[in-house]
Amino acid sequence: MATEIYLVRHGETMFNQLNKVQGWSDSPLTIKGIDDLKKTANALSQVHFDNMYSSDLKRAIDTVHLIKDANQVSKIGKIKKLPEFREVFFGSFEGDDIDNTWQQVALAAGLKAEKDITSIINQVGIARFRQATKKADPRHLAENSQELDKRMERAISVLQELTKNEQRVLIVSHGDFIKTLAIKYWQQSDGQHDIIFPNNGSISRALLADNGKFEIIDYNIDAENI
Predict the structure, then answer these.
(1) Which residues pair with 97 in a beta bridge?
(2) Which residues are bridge partners to 168 per DSSP?
């Protein structure tokens, strides 16, 4: 039996609004973020979930509670927090201006300075992009491709153990983490080039088989299209 996974990106935050790098750093949901999440919560209010999980960052925890409170057909107990589903870690770049950060990463990747992350990734590939991010980070703390791959595999393993007897669950995670999962586990991705960044409050669906096979089957679906 496969477990159906609903991966939801948290609502818009202050750092999203201010165009700042936000990985393991945290900022509160904005009023717009909460209002948009109400649409997602309403769209999922009649979907039965055996359980709901969340990244251990506050913006994700706030999001999952909003969705839980709106759901009318599920009996969800205490939310289990999963650090494996945290956002990608950007090291010293946390809280910095996004455009300036990508320009530094582009230079570290051997390109001219540019702020278009999709262009950078598509020129060097997602793995080299992660390596360049770590290289550009003055303290070299940012997650590289190997570290992130290992964490994604651990996240799937943890989830498999937790959901052995669950048919459908919801997890609130983060944009870059969900996107990186999709680059690796979505058939419409070639595993190398960039894909569209998931919207705040959007839903991606995955199947997790008993043998541990993880596959994303729908990606970045907005509430009105559920």
Answers:
(1) 20
(2) 4
Angle among Cα 68, 70, 71 to the nearest 5 degrees reads 65
What the block records as the tokens of 35 is 């209002």
Closest of 42, 90, 46 to residue 66, by C-alpha: 42
SS3 per residue for 87-131: CCCCHHHCCCEHHHHHHHHHHHCCCCCCCCHHHHHHHHCHHHHHH
pTM of model > 0.90: yes
Distance of CA 119 to the CA centre of its chain: 20
Q: How far is CA 100 from the centre of its chain?
A: 22
- Burial group, residue 191, by CB count within 10 angstroms (0-12, 13-18, 19+): exposed
As a whole number of angstroms, the distance between CA 191 and CA 203 comes to 20
Give pLDDT tens digits for 85-112. Answer: 999 999 999 999 999 999 999 999 999 9
Residue with tokens 């839903």: 203
Residue 113 CA to residue 136 CA, distance in Å, equals 12
φ, ψ dihedrals at 13, nearest 5°:
-115, 175
* Burial call 150-169: b when 16+ CB within 10 Å, e when fewer: ebbeebbebbbebbeebebb
pLDDT band at residue 226 under the 50/70/90 scheme:
confident
